[in-house]
Amino acid sequence: MDPTQAAPIEAHDFSFLGLFFQADPIVKGVMILLVIASIACWTVVFEKIVRLTAARRQAKAFETMVRTGGTLDTTLPGLAGHVVNAAVEAWRDQDASETRAERRERIERAMRVALGSEIKRLKTGLSLLATSGSTAPFVGLFGTVWGIMNSFSSIARSQDTSLAVVAPGIAEALFATAIGLVVAIPAVMAYNKLTGDVGAIQSRFTTGIALLGNRLARDRGAQHRAAAE
């Protein structure tokens, strides 16, 4: 063999799986971490879609009951039921010395507390989306920096600055950044959308609570006056 002839360059697999399996162990660990984060984020997204869809139906049922003057004996599902039960308990806890404004505030406060605890449950998991959206690009960037460092080490060892030597390591490194962006972008978009949906549901309940609190305070006041007569 002619010693002046260049040795054949080993073919490098630039497919997604190839870039993963041929990556440095640290870079590979970064990729695995990001994939796990992506799976967790999508699990939260699908779970929230189901729960918020049900919560919107419950908010609509609560609004309908309040605006049409429906009785509180009506069984409402989920979130709406918890709010109504809190209102009924506060309404039954009567005090003849209360003014109408004090009675209304007490009833509304009980409903707001019940609503707040349920909204807190709806928000569970959204912090994961926020954290993943803000940190995933930097985790991917860490993998990229580490991979590029390995590429420079390969150049130093081989004394060859050709693209064939540098390209595989750089491709693996950039693949880590790409995975980080694939995790972060949907996570941020989902967080913004789901947070807005939770806020809209809470606003609808808050409006209904004000109307229902006024109505219950008025009804209880009328009962007190009738009893006094």
From TrEMBL:
Residues 99-205 form the MotA/TolQ/ExbB proton channel domain. It is found in: Cell membrane; Membrane. Pfam families: MotA_ExbB (PF01618). The chain crosses the membrane at residues 26-46, 126-149, 169-191. InterPro entries: ExbB/TolQ_transport (IPR050790), MotA_ExbB_proton_chnl (IPR002898). The keyword Thylakoid does not apply. Keywords: Cell membrane, Membrane, Protein transport, Transmembrane, Transmembrane helix, Transport. PANTHER family: PROTEIN TOLQ (PTHR30625), TOL-PAL SYSTEM PROTEIN TOLQ (PTHR30625:SF3). Belongs to the exbB/tolQ family. This is TolQ protein. It comes from Methylobacterium aerolatum.
